[in-house]
């Protein structure tokens, strides 16, 4: 979503020069249209930027004792983001992308010691291994994280069906979206500056074109006392 926002902002900033040249030539009507369009773009961009910060304000990693990496929990993220990955149709597409990227291929050969000393990306932490709290090899396993039962050593399965994997995807989206939202703020400031300049130019175009921009001096002649002599 942020990419179209940035694109529209840069598009308006790039085309502002054309409108501004027309404004400098006292094309008041063109400048008025320019200001209206700019105001709409600024309002929409501001709303979407605030929405981006609100949506990505939740979530984050949870430290794991004795580990460098963090783990991520789906319930920590906003309802809007969670709804994007809970739909089976959406998740099937996302899972296909994760498998195709071979994200887990980098850690498939790790030993337990490697997991203790190395950091993991959110996708690797959530999709390529079971939760650290899981214990296996017992006849009855009770009271564990539900993701523990979804894990499988099969490279086509792993923990791709786990909520932790979906949380890892949301954490990746959150980090990227937050960076784009910061860039949106920069674009927004640029558009506001251009809008302010346009407002000043619009005020100048409304002044009457005259050799006396401040009006003629119509003061009547004052007769002095010696005119009567």
Q: Which strand order spans the largest sheet, edge to edge or round the barrel?
A: 1-2
The level of helicity is 55-70%
Radius of gyration: 31 Å
Task: Enumerate the spans where pLDDT stays under 50 for 5 or more consecutive residues.
Answer: none
| Spatial shape | elongated
Question: Biggest β-sheet: count, sense, barrel?
Answer: 2 strands, antiparallel
Order of helices and strands: HHEEHHHHH
Beta-strand portion reads under 5%
Count the E strands: 2
Overall average residue pLDDT: 79
| End-to-end C-alpha gap | 87 Å
SS-based class = mainly alpha
Given the structure, what is the number of helices?
7
How would you characterize this protein structure?
- By secondary structure, this protein is an all-alpha fold.
- It has 7 helices and 2 strands.
- It has helices at 2-24, 28-55, 79-86, 88-100, 112-117, 122-127, 163-205, and strands at residues 62-63, 70-71.
- The chain has a two-stranded antiparallel ribbon.
- A hairpin with a 6-residue loop joins β1 and β2 (70-71).
- α1 (2-24) runs parallel beside α7.
- The protein is elongated and about 85 Å long.
- The termini are far apart.
- 24% of the residues are buried.
- The mean pLDDT is 79.
């Amino acid at each position: 979503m942020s990419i179209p926002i940035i694109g529209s902002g840069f598009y308006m900033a790039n085309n502002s020069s054309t409108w501004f040249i027309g404004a400098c030539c006292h094309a008041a009507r063109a400048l008025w249209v320019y200001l209206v369009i700019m105001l709409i773009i600024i309002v929409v961009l501001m709303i979407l930027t605030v929405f981006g910060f609100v949506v990505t304000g939740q979530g984050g990693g949870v430290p794991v004792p004795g580990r460098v990496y963090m783990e991520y929990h789906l319930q920590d993220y906003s309802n809007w983001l969670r709804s994007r990955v809970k739909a089976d149709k959406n998740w099937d597409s996302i899972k296909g992308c994760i498998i195709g990227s071979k994200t887990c291929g980098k850690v498939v050969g790790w030993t337990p010691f490697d997991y203790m000393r190395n950091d993991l990306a959110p996708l690797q932490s959530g999709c390529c291994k079971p939760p650290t709290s899981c214990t296996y090899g017992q006849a009855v396993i009770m009271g564990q994280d539900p993701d523990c039962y979804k894990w499988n050593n099969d490279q086509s399965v792993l923990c791709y069906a786990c909520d932790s994997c979906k949380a890892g995807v949301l954490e990746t989206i959150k980090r990227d979206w937050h960076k784009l939202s910061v860039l949106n703020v920069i674009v927004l400031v640029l558009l506001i500056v251009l809008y302010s300049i346009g407002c000043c130019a619009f005020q100048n175009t409304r002044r009457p074109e005259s050799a006396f921009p401040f009006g003629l001096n119509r003061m009547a002649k004052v007769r002095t006392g010696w005119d009567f002599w």
